[in-house]
Specification:
The protein is built from 17 helices and no strands. The N terminus and C terminus are likely disordered. It is mainly alpha-helical. The chain is globular. The protein starts with a helix and ends in an 18-residue tail after the last helix. About 75% of the residues lie in helices and about 0% in strands.
C-alpha cells in the first residue's frame, strides 16, 4: 500500500502544494473579511437606517443575487483571461464596496454598495474555486490523493474564516466601533488579500478560445444558452431544489437576527451563533462527508439534508427558551448547518451526472445563478413575514426546504460521488 493510498483510506490530508496553500489561505481571508460585516447588515439597515422589513429582505436578496446570479460571468471570465486578473479585480471591487457601504446612508447608496460587494464575489469566488478544483485534480493525478480531501481542506479554511469573521465584527461592535468600523475592517482584510495575490498568484498564459465541436461557437465571446443545459429537465429540477436550500440558508442573515433580538433584546450573541455554525463545519464536515459517501447516495442525501433544514425552522417555535433565551436560535443554526453539510456536496456532485462534460462550467454557474434569482424573490417575500406571529413565520420557512425535498425525489439520472466540503462561498 502506498503512502498516498494509506492517507486516503485513513482520511489524513497530505501536505498541499504551495499553490494550493495560497488558494486555501485566500478562502480563509475572503470569509474572514466578509463575515466581519454581513451578519450585522440586517440590523444596520433596520435599526440604523430605519428600513422596513421587506426592504431589508430585498437588499439582502440583491446582495446574494448580484453574487450568485453573476457567478457564471466570473467563471466565463476566468476561463478566458485566467484567474489572476479576475481575482485582483474582484478584490478591488470588494474594497470599494465595503468602503462605500460604510458611508452609505440612503436606500439607493446602500443598494449600490451591496451590489458592488456581491459582484466582487461573483468575480473572485469562481476564479478561486475553479483553480482549486483544477489544482486538486492535478494533485490527485500526481499523488493518488482523492481530490475530495483537498477540496475539504479548502472548505474547512473557508469555514475557519467564517468562524473568525463574526467574532471580529462582534469585537468591533462591543468596542463601540459600530457598523462603519466593521466595514472598514473588512476592507482592510481585502487590501491584504489584494497585495498578497498581486505578489504571489502566478500569471497563467491567456487561453486561446477554441470553438465547441459541432457548433462553431467560441466560448467566452458571447452568451450561449445551449439546449442540452437549459432544456435539461433533471438539471433544472436540481437548480430549483438547490434554490430552496439557498433561500433557507439566507435566513441566517434575515430571520436569525430577528430571533436573537427577540430572545435577548439585542444582537450581541449573533456572532457566537455564526461562529457555532462555522465550527460545526470545520469539525464535522470531513467525517460527515466520509460517512455520507459510504452509506447515503447523493440523490438520497439531497432530500435528507433539506428535511433536516426544515426541522431547524420547525423547531424554533417548539423549542423552549433556554436559560439565556438562545436555545431556539441555537437549534436552528445546528440543524441548518447539518442539513447544509449533507445536501450541498450532494448537489454539487450531481451536476456532472446531469450535463455533458463540455458544459460543466456553464452548468455550475447556472446552478448558482438560478439560486441567486430565487433568493432575490424569496428574501423580499420572507421579509414581509418578519412581523407575522412566530408559528406562521417558521411554518412558512420550514415549508420551503420541504418543497425542495419533495422535488428532489423526482430527480432522474444516476448519482455521483459528492465533492467533500463544498459550501456557500462569499
Amino acid at each position: 500500500m502506498t503512502t498516498s493510498t494509506a492517507r486516503a483510506r485513513t482520511g489524513v490530508t497530505p501536505a498541499l502544494t504551495p499553490y494550493l496553500r495560497l488558494l486555501t489561505a485566500t478562502q480563509f481571508a475572503f470569509n474572514t473579511g466578509f463575515y466581519a460585516v454581513l451578519p450585522y447588515l440586517a440590523a444596520h439597515l433596520g435599526d440604523g437606517l430605519g428600513m422596513a422589513g421587506w426592504l431589508v429582505g430585498l437588499v439582502l436578496g440583491l446582495r446574494t443575487f448580484s453574487q450568485q446570479g453573476l457567478f457564471v460571468v466570473g467563471g466565463a471570465l476566468t476561463d478566458r483571461y485566467g484567474p489572476r486578473p479576475v481575482v485582483l479585480t474582484g478584490c478591488v471591487l470588494r474594497i470599494a464596496g465595503f468602503c462605500w457601504l460604510a458611508q452609505a446612508g440612503t436606500t439607493a447608496t446602500v443598494i449600490g454598495a451591496v451590489l458592488l460587494i456581491g459582484f466582487a464575489a461573483a468575480l473572485f469566488s469562481p476564479a478561486v474555486e475553479s483553480e482549486t478544483a483544477r489544482a486538486a485534480v492535478a494533485h490527485e493525478a500526481e499523488t493518488g490523493t482523492p481530490r475530495a480531501q483537498v477540496l475539504a481542506v479548502f472548505s474547512a479554511a473557508g469555514q475557519a474564516g467564517a468562524f473568525l469573521g463574526p467574532l471580529l465584527g462582534s469585537l468591533l461592535l462591543l468596542l463601540g466601533g459600530g457598523f462603519r468600523t466593521a466595514c472598514l475592517a473588512g476592507a482592510v482584510v481585502f487590501v491584504g488579500v489584494l497585495a498578497g495575490h498581486a505578489r504571489l498568484m502566478p500569471r497563467r498564459p491567456r487561453r486561446v478560445p477554441v470553438p465547441v465541436p459541432g457548433t462553431g461557437v467560441v466560448p467566452g465571446t458571447g452568451l450561449v444558452l445551449p439546449r442540452e443545459v437549459f432544456a435539461n429537465r433533471p438539471f433544472l429540477v436540481l437548480c430549483l431544489v438547490y434554490s430552496s436550500y439557498l433561500v433557507s440558508y439566507n435566513q441566517l442573515y434575515l430571520a436569525l437576527p430577528m430571533e436573537v433580538e427577540r430572545a435577548t433584546g439585542s444582537q450581541g450573541a449573533l456572532g457566537g451563533l455564526f461562529a457555532l455554525s462555522s465550527l460545526l463545519v470545520v469539525v464535522a464536515q470531513l467525517p460527515l462527508t466520509r460517512w455520507s459517501a459510504r452509506r447515503v447516495a447523493p440523490r438520497a442525501a439531497l432530500p435528507a439534508g433539506l428535511v433536516v433544514v426544515a426541522a431547524g425552522f420547525a423547531a424554533v417555535p417548539l423549542a423552549p427558551d433556554g436559560p439565556a433565551g438562545l436555545l431556539p436560535a441555537a437549534v436552528l443554526v445546528v440543524l441548518l448547518t447539518l442539513g447544509q453539510m449533507l445536501l450541498v456536496p450532494a448537489a454539487r456532485g450531481l451536476v456532472p451526472d446531469l450535463v455533458d462534460d463540455h458544459r460543466l462550467g456553464l452548468a455550475t454557474g447556472a446552478l448558482s445563478s438560478v439560486s441567486g434569482a430565487a433568493v432575490l424573490v424569496g428574501s423580499a417575500a420572507t421579509g414581509t413575514l418578519l412581523g407575522a406571529p412566530g408559528p406562521v413565520l417558521w411554518a412558512v420557512l420550514a415549508a420551503v426546504p420541504l418543497a425542495g425535498a419533495a422535488l428532489a425525489l423526482t430527480l432522474s439520472g444516476k448519482g455521483g460521488t459528492p465533492v467533500a466540503g463544498t459550501t456557500v462561498t462569499d
